[in-house]
Amino acid sequence: MTEPLLVVQNLRCHIPSARGAVRAVDGVSLTLARGQVLGLVGESGCGKSTLVRTLVGAAPARASVSGSIAVSGTELTAMPDEARRAFVGRHVGMVFQDPMSALNPVVPVGRQIGEAVRHHHGLSRAAARARAADLLERVGVPDPGHRLRHYPHQFSGGLRQRITIAMALSCEPELLIADEATTALDVTVQRQILDLLTGLARERGMGLILVSHDLGVIAGRADETAVMYAGRIVERGPTRDVFARPRHRYTDALLGAIPRLDAPPGTRLRVIPGTPPDLTAPPPGCAFTSRCPAPGDRCAHEPPPLRVEPGDHAHACFHPTEGTSP
Ligand SMILES: Nc1ncnc2c1ncn2[C@@H]1O[C@H](COP(=O)(O)OP(=O)(O)O)[C@@H](O)[C@H]1O
Ligand SMILES: [Mg+2]
Prior knowledge:
Layout: E1 6-15, E2 22-32, E3 37-41, H1 48-55, E4 64-71, E5 74-75, H2 81-91, E6 92-95, H3 99-102, H4 109-121, H5 125-138, H6 144-147, H7 157-169, E7 175-179, H8 187-204, E8 207-212, H9 215-218, E9 224-229, E10 232-238, H10 239-244, H11 249-256, E11 314-315
Parallel strand pairs: 3-8, 3-9, 6-7, 7-8
Antiparallel strand pairs: 1-2, 1-4, 4-5, 9-10, 10-11
Helix pairs in contact: 4-5, 5-7, 7-8
The structure holds adenosine-5'-diphosphate and magnesium ion.
């Protein structure tokens, strides 16, 4: 059996704050194979960004991190900082919501990509430039030879995001993580960028983690979906199964909150009542209890483990739905 690309075990990231430690990631385990797309979804504040940042060694300063992260069999958490940064830089690419935060506004994009390429491959300036043009072409920037000379502000939001994807690809990563990478873009551009990312993953046998608060981004693209709530994975499985047969009440509620195009006019959008718990003092049992439409006696006291039973996908719920989406 080939080794999985990414194996995360019992990962925790607790961030100190004035009100106490924020348990942003609280015991997450997941696996990703090469060429596979994993969707990571959940409402804002559930810990998705902290999880992926912790994976790449960029947890907030002074955070307390424990658990295990292995990329292609190499355990990262035990590595000295510098070796780990170098390893992650070679194997993992990241794309964020705001491309401007990843780009230098006063440097032409060709030079920025070229520098990333030189850093990873030690190419000459001319070779790096050719490679930068090549990367821009691969991510669908028209007229790349000419565009190399342009500055970030001379591109549209969608093209700018393509440029940061080109930069993330410059090291030929085995794993690409896109954290709300299309959230700021309009729907058409969003679809194009998501198709580009999933296409690259399939074509290059790269692992891709698509992080979004929007289930619509994951649907039809991710092979597997992991649903995160209050720092934990509450449901995980093949995307088709999770969407067609959500088991956790939180997933069910999230799916119910997606606007449906076939809904009769005037139908009110269902939102999930209440708000996610304060992660400095999460409830002792299931964190969704106070918002759950069908809580049982144990739920408030006992945290439900993420269970996998034969013929079903993993879910952490004592009273799962029958598995029919609303
Ligand atoms: N640097 C930080 N300092 C303090 N709290 C943080 C920091 N980063 C994230 N958090 C808290 O961690 C929790 C998870 O946040 P985040 O990982 O950004 O969630 P998501 O990406 O799902 O919206 C939130 O309660 C957030 O306020
Ligand atoms: Mg986030």
